[in-house]
TrEMBL record, chain A:
Source organism (scientific name): Scophthalmus maximus
Protein's gene: TRAPPC2L
Protein name: Trafficking protein particle complex subunit 2-like protein
Top-level taxonomy: Eukaryota, Metazoa, Chordata, Craniata, Vertebrata
A GO cellular component annotation in the UniProt record: perinuclear region of cytoplasm
Major subcellular location class: cytoplasm
InterPro entries, per the entry: Longin-like_dom_sf (IPR011012), Sedlin (IPR006722), TRAPPC2L (IPR044760)
One GO term of the biological process aspect: endoplasmic reticulum to Golgi vesicle-mediated transport
Amino acid sequence: MAVCIAVIAKENYPLYIRSVPTQNELKFHYTVHTSLDVVEEKISAVGKSLGDQRELYLGLLYPTEDYKVYGYVTNSKVKFVIVVDSSNTSLRDNEIRSMFRKLHNTFTDVMCNPFHNPGDTIQSKAFDGIVSGMMVQSG
Amino acid sequence: MESLTLSDVEQKYYSDLFAYCDTDNTKKVASNGRVLDLFRAAQLPSEVVLQITELCGATRLGHFGRSQFYIALKLIAIAQSGLPLRVESLNSVKDLPLPRFVVGKNEAEARHVALYQDTDSQGLYPASAAAVMPRPPGRGLQNKKAPPPSTSLPVHEVVQPLAASVEPQPEPTSPVVSPDQSPPTSPPSWRKHKRQHSGGNVDRPPVVAAAGAVWTQFREPQTAPVSAEGMWASHSPPPPGQESWVSFTADTPPSSTLPGMHPSSVQESTTIRTVASAAMTNEIQRQSSGYDDPWKITDEQRQYYINQFKTIQPDLTGFIPGSAAKEFFTKSKLPILELSHIWELSDFDKDGALTLDEFCAAFHLVVARKNGYDLPEKLPESLMPKLIDLDDSAEVPEQTADVGYSGSPVEVTPNKSPSMPSLNQAWQEMNPNNEDTAIVHPVPIRMTPSKIHMQEMELKRTGSGERETFDNNHPTSPLLTKPPELDEEAKLPASMKFVAANTVGEGYSSSDSFTSDPEPITRQRSQSGTSPEPLKVVAPPPPPPRPHPTHSRSSSLDMNRTFAATSAAGQAQASAIAYLPAVPPRPLPTQTSAPHTGLRVEAEAAPGAAAGLATTAAATTTAAATTSPQQIPQQPNFADFSQFQAFAASEQPSSLPEVDKHSEAGPVEKAPEGAGPLRTVKSDGQVDERASASVNSAKGASGPIAPPPKPVRRRLKSEDELRPEDEQHGPQKSNVIAAVLSTQPSIPRSVGKDKKAIQASIRRNKETNTVLARLNSELQQQLKDLLEERISLEVQLEQLRPFSHL
């Protein structure tokens, strides 16, 4: 049910971005980019308690009138960003979490592929499939 | 269908192809193997081929009519030229080179073919066409080749299949090989020169068409693979097939084998590229066409895969790590993207490594891809890793001809249910995990007494300073450590958290060890009984009921020994036990119940058997001593002495040692001996008090436990109080202890699996342990006191005696 899903590498360049409404993609790209700032802020904030297990799920990064942006960061500083439509109020936190979990799992599968070089954009069809499944079906 | 204008060359070429494909001579080519092969040989991405078929209307019609076929061919040519596929271009593009069909499973060969384009423009095409023609007849083609070239058209950039003929070799894979496969063998590699058609085309086109048809149908794994399979199944034209798909493993070698195969191929090989393999595949497919599953792995294939697997990983049940697999498959020269996709498909359990099955599946997919088959989106069932390992030995050694996935009759790859090998692996992984987890339960089984363990446990558990004080105070007694530990234990029982039940077990075991003597055991039992939480658990650590006077902790050995020694003596002095009770009442504040129990035990012990009493007294005293220093407060402990009775009885031997432990060397020694006299003395309140006091003091001094005087005082009191109690309770206590002890063994075993329960039981046991230890110490003290009393009494007696003598 997401409108846009993005995977950003540790160095803050995108590994994978996909939006459903193929128009206005640039807008989503921009949104994701700005959300990175919020992600960084959240990471650094939690980093104070270094010993503690940092929560991977960052939650709602920031809402706009059109959509909400959720963030998730892995232990290797790879960030997942999901943009959902604000009108889609049925999405609960748990669902977002499960989406992130699925993303994370699929992402690790991609990483496990020896033919994939970390740092390359993700070209796995399986990953695409999963992401498409999560995108707004309206296509 | 759009009107199509073909040049002469094209016309001829196409008609040749069509004839080739039109095996049924129905003037319309169904999407049969040849067509597919042909199209596949065009080396276009499958999507393009699909597009072409759609554009030409074959999809609509369901078959390739001549016109559709021609259109398709033209589109192929267009696509190969890199032009976008448009219907309009059909007619607009002039000078379009002839579509090239290359059976290039091997991309290298494809490239090779490309070379030909520039070579010999003389339109060796016909030759290739000839080659295209089924081999057997193929020979004839060569003849044809000649003429055609002559008539070859202007060479655009003619692809030079014919030119290739000049160079025989190169396309080793050229299916030409097709060992006499029936004629229709898909044109091994027919290169169609763009405009080269020449007469040879006649032969070729059919082949090409066939291939094309095959190509279009490539999408349906069924047909394509079938053809491939067919190829395989049939004469297992090993070399070509092998080369084609194996080629990447050894880039060239495979191809080399081909040439030898077909004499005719010499010429054709030149022109005919490696389409051979495809052709063969198709042919075989046609022949065998019985196999529906294009993805099945034949025996030979599997055997080959297995051998390859072995070269990387000798252990067939082992894994190939991702990096090794990457290198291996990179040799196939497939694009990384495709390899990545193949990996995703084949690494079923996503572990970054390939098992034999996964490897075979991946290999198979690579072969398929190299042969032009598109990669599936999902792993085909036949390639799914099996749950059980395939029987490798089953296969035919022939590894060649694996080009196609010929549906070999042999179910080499049993269709496993989609359950994955991951399950297997999961199971394997789980087992060890399970085992590990299984081990988790510490299990408090009643451990056999191991004094050392006890000592360790005690040491561990009692980390408090008591121990230190004890140690300081009782340098002499080996048991020194024990009392303190006992005290500590008593103190910490609740807070104690055993790291693992094992430790508890150990501790308990150690306590058990102390209880080597039946008496101690009973003592402990009673003690445990008295302790608030009867050590149930753990079997190992004798639950609290181990009122073992001998502190399970440390030097229990000594204590036991001394107790044993003293017990004997104590026994003799059983009668004197009476005073044990005197010792006791020392409030064992630390041990809420323990002290009580200890005291009581002591008290009870006194009246009971001398030995028992002595022990109990000692225990109580020790307990008192131990407890007092810790928490003098709890006076009410006295009441629990009843429990000590049994304890005392049993613990006498242990108490003695305890007494020793507690008291200084002197008193300690005295204690055992004095236990008797002490006991007797105890009957005399004062004496008892004194004794107890002495014992207490001794004990206190020895006991690391807190303020000796206090304990002493307490002990006196307790002893006094206890004495009568002891006497009364003695027997009871012993009974109790015995009872408790008897019940002990049953308790431990039950624990088991529940970790929490175990931990709780461990805790309880520890507490009991401490209680018992304390009791023990107290009893020891009492014993000492009694002994002192006895001594004093003896002295008095002697004093009196002379008079008697007089």
